[in-house]
Structure formats: structure tokens, C-alpha cells
């Protein structure tokens, strides 16, 4: 059977970093509160000339380089983002143009923090359906543009960045030992909209709006939703937590990551944590975490890797793949 195999990955971060202490003069907060409640120590913040498209393009080029490919090899670009450059056209199409690619097709995928997991699952269907052979899957965000910088309960949590994967159709045996995407489960429930949303949009206010979150409410649901969808993915693949080499979760809060791993019985040393470095970068968080763990030699070819995310909507999902 056809499998969607990872051929390359890449990442891009804005030049400027903001440490927790940099917020102390802006809102009533402290490095101690932010570290204790979230695990975040710093985040990258985009300058005016750094956008979702430019960061996404840089991550895509890095992923293509690591795959030994050029844009000519790609059939489809899926960009996961909630912070597009424009309301339309899709920022994926802008990235396609920036890459000098005028064949194939590109579209944005909007599932907030779960966007990258949704995009990998979607790319896998295009590949297995025979509609694309090589897909660039990008998560790129500039959440700094939609933050209310006077709201201490949200402005300290998020950061900007981008990450990308190149997936390629390869023949597999249909076994759990195959490389590539092995299982995926996606969920959403719009009943939770008011707990995490942006208070503007083209069809309502005609403005971009600002991110609003009832953090405690999101936290209450997060661990249960994450563990449910992961258990469904394990069931589909016929594996248990012990079979995993690496758990690469969405990086929103170290306490959510730790509680999810503990509930699932995933050993601490198998969990990739980058929330301290990047903050919550929404759809970019999983590919950014992947890029760190691949660059430092933790994730190697043949490793069994579980991706997971949960965010606004609510949306949540998991993807199991062999690197
Ligand atoms: O990526 C999408 C998914 N998003 C998430 O997963 C986020 C989920 N939620 C969280 O990560 C946590 O709920 C937060 C980090 C947002 C907040 O942590 P918490 O332990 O749930 O704190 P809390 O909201 O219950 O607030 C505790 C206190 C409050 O003060 P009072 O009411 O106890 O007097 C807040 O006003 O902390 C206060 N607070 C702050 N204090 C200092 C809120 N933000 C800050 C801040 N600095 N930045």
C-alpha cells in the first residue's frame, strides 16, 4: 500500500526573542508566574518584515533542502495557519508563488493549534488517494499580530514561527513497521467556541480582532480530549504507549503536556518539550518541536513518533508516523 513518508523537515523563527522578564514592565506579571504556570521562558516575535508567508517560505525551503528536493518536485502545499497574510487569497498560494512554483495547487487549513495535525492527516489522504505524490505541509503563525498586548492572561503565552515537512508517496507493506503516516484521528466540537476565539473577522466585525481565552476552561478540557484522541489512534494502529519512541505534543503548556503523558503512560524521556523556547506557536508548534528533536539527533529514521494537538474550535487530533 502507499504510505506518506517524511522525506525532509525544516523550521524558521523570527529574529527577535522576548524573555518573560520583558513583559514585566508591560503588564502585571513575573518570570516566576509564567515559568511555574506554563513552562514558557521565551518566545520569538515577528518584526514588520516577517510574516506568516515569509516564515512559512523559509521553513518550506529548509524542508526541501533537507529532502534534497526543489519546488519543482512538489505537487501540493497545505499551510496550517490561523494568521494568514490576507483574508484571501490563501497564504499557501502566496508561499507557492514565493517558491517560484506555478504548477500543482495550494490551500490553507484552519484548525487553529490543531492545524498541523489536521494538515498532515489531509496530506496523507491526498497521497494515498493518488492525487499528489509529494506534499509540503507547513505550519506558520504570527499570533503576535492578534494578541491583546494589555491582557496578561494571553499575551505572555504565544509566539511566532513556522515548521514544515515534505511527505512523499512510497510503497509500504501495510504493516506497523512501515515508514510514513500509520494512523490519524481528528475531532472538533464547536460548542466550546467561546473558550478560545478571536473577537473579529471579515463577516462579523470587519476587523482582524484579538485572541480571547478562558485559559482555565481550556485547561480543564485539554488533557481528557488529548488522551481520548491518542487512545483512538493507538487503537487504530494496534499499539500501546510502550511502543512509542517519541511523543511530540502541541506546545501550549508544560503542565498539560506532563499530565497527558502521565495519563497515557508515556515515559518522560520520550516527550519532546520546546514550549520553554517557543511559547505556544499554534499550528507551528508541532513542526517546530519536530525540528528541534530531529536536529539534536533524538528523532531518527525508523522511530515511531506520535504527534498531537488541541486548540480553538475546539479542535483536536493525533497522528502516528514512523520517521
Ligand atoms: O493552544 C491552545 C490551547 N490552549 C491551552 O492549552 C491553554 C490552556 N490554559 C493554560 O495553559 C492555563 O490555564 C493558563 C496558563 C492560561 C493559566 O494558568 P492557570 O493555572 O489556569 O491560571 P488561572 O487562569 O486560573 O489564573 C490564576 C491567577 C489569576 O488570578 P486570581 O484570579 O487567582 O487572582 C489570574 O488573574 O493568575 C492570574 N494571572 C496572571 N498572573 C500573573 C493570569 N495571567 C497572569 C500572568 N501573570 N501573566
From TrEMBL:
Residue ranges occupied by any Beta-ketoacyl-[acyl-carrier-protein] synthase III C-terminal domain in the UniProt entry: 236-323
Catalytic activity: malonyl-[ACP] + acetyl-CoA + H(+) = 3-oxobutanoyl-[ACP] + CO2 + CoA
GO biological process: fatty acid biosynthetic process
Domain of life (superkingdom): Bacteria
Enzyme Commission number(s): 2.3.1.180
Entries under CDD domains matching the protein: KAS_III (cd00830)
Active site, per annotation: 113, 250, 280
One GO MF term: 3-oxoacyl-[acyl-carrier-protein] synthase activity
Keywords linked to the UniProt accession: Acyltransferase, Cytoplasm, Fatty acid biosynthesis, Fatty acid metabolism, Lipid biosynthesis, Lipid metabolism, Multifunctional enzyme, Transferase
ACP-binding: annotated span: 251-255
Record-annotated Beta-ketoacyl-[acyl-carrier-protein] synthase III N-terminal domain positions: 107-190
GO cellular component, one term: cytoplasm
Keyword NAD: no
Record's keyword annotation contains Translocase: no
Subcellular compartments: Cytoplasm
NCBIfam families: fabH, PRK09352.1
Family: Belongs to the thiolase-like superfamily. FabH family.
Entry's free-text remark on domains: The last Arg residue of the ACP-binding site is essential for the weak association between ACP/AcpP and FabH.
Assembly information from the UniProt record: Homodimer.
Function: Catalyzes the condensation reaction of fatty acid synthesis by the addition to an acyl acceptor of two carbons from malonyl-ACP. Catalyzes the first condensation reaction which initiates fatty acid synthesis and may therefore play a role in governing the total rate of fatty acid production. Possesses both acetoacetyl-ACP synthase and acetyl transacylase activities. Its substrate specificity determines the biosynthesis of branched-chain and/or straight-chain of fatty acids.
Protein name: Beta-ketoacyl-[acyl-carrier-protein] synthase III
Organism: Mesorhizobium atlanticum
Amino acid at each position: 500500500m502507499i504510505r506518506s513518508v517524511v522525506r525532509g523537515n525544516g523550521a524558521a523563527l523570527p529574529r527577535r526573542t522576548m524573555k518573560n522578564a520583558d513583559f514585566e514592565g508591560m503588564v502585571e506579571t513575573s518570570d516566576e508566574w509564567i515559568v511555574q504556570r506554563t513552562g514558557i521562558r521565551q518566545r520569538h516575535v515577528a518584526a514588520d518584515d516577517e510574516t506568516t508567508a515569509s516564515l512559512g517560505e523559509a521553513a518550506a525551503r529548509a524542508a526541501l533542502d533537507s529532502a534534497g528536493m526543489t519546488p519543482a518536485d512538489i505537487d501540493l502545499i497545505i499551510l496550517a495557519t490561523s494568521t494568514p497574510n490576507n483574508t484571501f487569497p490563501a497564504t499557501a498560494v502566496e508561499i507557492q508563488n514565493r517558491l517560484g512554483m506555478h504548477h500543482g495547487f495550494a490551500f490553507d487549513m484552519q484548525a487553529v493549534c490543531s492545524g498541523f495535525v489536521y494538515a498532515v492527516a489531509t496530506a496523507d489522504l491526498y497521497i494515498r488517494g493518488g492525487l499528489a505524490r509529494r506534499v509540503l505541509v507547513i505550519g506558520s503563525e504570527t499570533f503576535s499580530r492578534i494578541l491583546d498586548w494589555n491582557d496578561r492572561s494571553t499575551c505572555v503565552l504565544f509566539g511566532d514561527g513556522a515548521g514544515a515537512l515534505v511527505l512523499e508517496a512510497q510503497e509500504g507493506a501495510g504493516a506497523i513497521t512501515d515508514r510514513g503516516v500509520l494512523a490519524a484521528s481528528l475531532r472538533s466540537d464547536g460548542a466550546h467556541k467561546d473558550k478560545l476565539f478571536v473577537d473579529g473577522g471579515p463577516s462579523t466585525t470587519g476587523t482582524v480582532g484579538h485572541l480571547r481565552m478562558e485559559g482555565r476552561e481550556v485547561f480543564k478540557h485539554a488533557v481528557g480530549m488529548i488522551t481520548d484522541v491518542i487512545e483512538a489512534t493507538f487503537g487504530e494502529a494496534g499499539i500501546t504507549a510502550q511502543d512509542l519512541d517519541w511523543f511530540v505534543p502541541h506546545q501550549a503548556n508544560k503542565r498539560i503536556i506532563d499530565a497527558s503523558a502521565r495519563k497515557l503512560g508515556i515515559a518522560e524521556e520520550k516527550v519532546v518539550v520546546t514550549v520553554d523556547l517557543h511559547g505556544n506557536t499554534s499550528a507551528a508548534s508541532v513542526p517546530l518541536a519536530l525540528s528541534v528533536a530531529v536536529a539534536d539527533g533524538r528523532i531518527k529514521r525508523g522511530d515511531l513518533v506520535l504527534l498531537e494537538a488541541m486548540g480553538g474550535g475546539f479542535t483536536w487530533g493525533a497522528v502516528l508516523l514512523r520517521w
